[in-house]
Amino acid sequence: MNRMNTADVDTTTIAIVGYGYWGPKLLRNFTDIADCRVKYVCDKYATRLRQVTSKYPNIKIAQSFDRVVEDSEVDAIVIATPISTHSDIAKQALENGKHVFVEKPLTADSESAEELIRLSAAQRLVLMVGHTFKYSPPVLKIKDIIDSGELGHIYYISSSRVNLGLHQPDVSVIWDLAPHDFSIIFYWLNEEPVQVNAFGRACIKPDKPDVAFINLAFESGAVAEVHLSWLSPVKLRRTVIVGSKKMLTYDDTESVEKVKVFDHGVNFVEPSSFEEFQLNYRSGDILSPHLDTYEPLFAETNHFVECIREGRQPKTDGADGLRVVKALEKAEQSLMKNGNFVEDSRCRLRIA
Ligand SMILES: NC(=O)c1ccc[n+]([C@@H]2O[C@H](COP(=O)([O-])OP(=O)(O)OC[C@H]3O[C@@H](n4cnc5c(N)ncnc54)[C@H](O)[C@@H]3O)[C@@H](O)[C@H]2O)c1
């Protein structure tokens, strides 16, 4: 790969576009990075921008992205706007010679993601996607455990990411929440799914599914199911991984012991007759490994600045973003294609 264009000066100057729910978290982290200066925060709405000025009086605010992207002092653009706007803003930024960080998912369709990858490669600019969990200590620890062979080969992964809200106006729950599970699972297994199907329903807003059950099958034989919902009485961020040697649970809502490795399993003894059929269930130690305690978003934002300064390809680059977008498209297509509308007094439903 060609070396990236690096920032010419010691300080990397960035602008953040989108100051809704997630933008402030990105701003807090970027302002904590040494040798990184946030010059602008840009948002369509003046009310949002007033919150920036009261907290960070030295940061300029802008309602027009054109003004920001044309400023030659700005090295990089950080995008935290709704998903449907990602590709246009990222394209304009790359065409103006800026490095780009885009929140997950990279784009709303795979063609736009491919175009961004082409543009960034041609301009030798960093293109990074905010797959935050790939910077999170429990996810990294589980990757090490899987790669070490401790779990054996992976039979299946089951994941629940449910909560009450936040309903997104422009996308289904799949595009909002599945980027997390897909990026994590593809990273752990080091492969993309060969089969994706989804089943779900739109309970509150017609045509915007807010609950989905996605099944994934991988060439290695591993299968995964991902349950997503904006309609749940409790917040669950829970994953179970079952391997041929050991099993593991990961609960991101726990403050301690987020990851537990169970020396549990089943041994199948080849029978010589039906009467001899037997399984030996093994129930051994449960171990909770030590985890680092840094904030994943700080590691992620730091990585972006380092990649710009050192001309490196990010760990969550455009290709990583595209893999996830392709799987999101398949899941959404499956959910929509086999769907029948069912209407009752509470919900107008689409079922796939
Ligand atoms: N990595 C994570 O864990 C994580 C968590 C939440 C959200 N996100 C991602 O962050 C992004 C933003 O999500 P959010 O929940 O903050 O959305 P939001 O709707 O709360 O905020 C988006 C902001 O962008 C502004 N905006 C929209 N179009 C704009 C434009 N053309 N120019 C300037 N500003 C514009 C809006 O006014 C709004 O303030 C999404 O891609 C989402 O998937 C990531």
If you had to describe this structure to a student in words, what would you say it looks like?
By secondary structure, this protein is an alpha/beta fold. 32% of the residues lie in helices and 30% in strands. The chain has helices spanning 23-31, 46-55, 65-69, 86-95, 110-123, 137-148, 173-189, 296-310, 318-337, and strands at 12-17, 36-42, 60-62, 76-79, 99-103, 127-130, 154-162, 193-201, 211-218, 223-229, 236-243, 247-251, 259-269, 278-287, 340-343, 348-351. Nicotinamide-adenine-dinucleotide binds next to loops. Nicotinamide-adenine-dinucleotide (NAD) binds at residues 17-23, 42-45, 48, 65, 80-83, 85, 103-104, 130, 132.
What spatial form do the alpha-carbon principal axes imply?
globular
Our count of helices gives: 9
What is the helix content?
Answer: 25-40%
Low-confidence stretches: 339-352
Distance between the termini: 42 Å
Strand content: 25-35%
The topology string of helices and strands comes to EHEHEHEHEHEHEHEEEEEEEHHEE
Please describe the biggest sheet, giving its number of strands, its sense, and whether it closes into a barrel. Answer: 8 strands, mixed
Structural class: alpha/beta
Strand order across the largest sheet: 8-9-10-7-11-12-13-14
Concise summary:
The protein is built from 9 helices and 16 strands. The chain has 352 residues and is of the alpha/beta class. The two termini are 42 Å apart.
